[in-house]
Amino acid sequence: MPGVAPTINAELDDGPFKGRRIEVEVVEGRPPKTIEVPEADGGTCRYCLSRWEQGGGAASYTFLYRV
User: Fold this and answer.
1) HSE on the CB side for 22, CA within 13 Å?
2) Claim: this prediction has a pTM higher than 0.85
């Protein structure tokens, strides 16, 4: 659809959101290097790509730290 950014499923491999999948917008046709996932208490968890080369409609992310 015009005007709608393409997305992928980010698979969170570890950390506080281990096992969850969230939808994120792609950046220049690729999964973003890092994503920030909001916590219920108002905090945020930062995740990064677990592997640089990934394909398909999903990408694996590993926990870095709480922001």
Assistant:
1) 13
2) yes
